[in-house]
Amino acid sequence: MKLVLASNNAGKLAELQALFAPLGVELVRQADLGIPEAPEPHCTFVENALAKARHAAKVSGLPALADDAGLCVEAFGGLPGVDTAYYATRFGYAKSDDNNVRALLEQLAGVTDRRAALVSTLVALRSAEDPEPLIATGRAPGLITQAPVGDGGFGFDPVMFLPQFGKTFAELSTEDKNANSHRGKAAQQMLALMRERWFAASPAQP
After folding, report:
1. Which residues contact 26 (CB under 8 A, 6 or more apart)?
2. Which alpha helices (H) appear in the chain, and where do they start and end?
3. Residue 17, exposed/middle/buried by CB under 10 A (0-12, 13-18, 19+)?
4. Would the annotation count 169 as a binding residue?
5. Model pTM?
6. Which one of 69, 72, 106, 127 has the largest count of C-beta atoms within 10 Å of its C-beta?
7. Does a structural domain hold residue 206?
8. CA 96, CA 98: separation in Å to the nearest integer?
9. Tell me, what CATH number does 54's domain have?
10. Is 68 a catalytic residue?
């Protein structure tokens, strides 16, 4: 089964492709199909993910999968949330993962409450008009470090410390990260939903 991924993020594609491999699902980036990014005007992850999935499904004619994810920092009242990708631009930096990390650490300078969570919401649609979207959410709580640690992953992985591992996401193996990340948790939920709703064998007629 081929699904269009409503994202142009190569790191996100690689993570999700590995996670969905057991179902025999092939993910294709919307950019590879010439589909522009959808507007994301909403203030919640689920609304934005649904808007992106409907847009990709409508333009491609394929089932679609969309992910909206971000960092929710306790000291900031849950922000930057849905605006995580553009966080650095609020402080005069160009949009990039490295600048996001730089801006976050600058804004948390002197702040003792370092609690935060990476949150991912996945939405899957059989078509743009699907009245029953599959929705899965994953949350990975942790602490923001004082400086980046580790060379793996992307986004905020180098500054997201997981007390249960004593490491940041950027220090974990791919297997450990996929099993414990916000996106990994959401993907596992989504796999279970797809198996139940989309791939389950039809019950025998009485």
Report:
1. 1, 2, 3, 17
2. 10-20, 45-60, 97-107, 174-180, 182-197
3. middle
4. no
5. 0.85
6. 69
7. no
8. 5
9. 3.90.950.10
10. yes
Considering its fold, how many domains does the chain have in total?
1
Dihedral sign from CA coordinates of 66, 136, 189, 123: negative
Residue 203 lies in a domain: no
182 known ligand binder: yes
CA distance 103 to 98: 9
The length of the chain, given as a count of residues: 206
Instruction: Find out whether the peptide bond into 80 is cis, omega within 30 degrees of 0.
Output: yes
Of 82, 105, 86, the C-alpha closest to 96 is 86
Percent of the chain at pLDDT > 70 equals: 97
* 69 has binding-site annotation: yes
Residue 92 lies in domain: 2-197
Per the annotation, does 8 bind a ligand? yes
Q: Is residue 9 part of a domain?
A: yes
Q: Of the residues 32, 67, 68, 130, which is catalytic?
A: 68
Q: Is the pLDDT reported for residue 201 higher than 90?
A: no
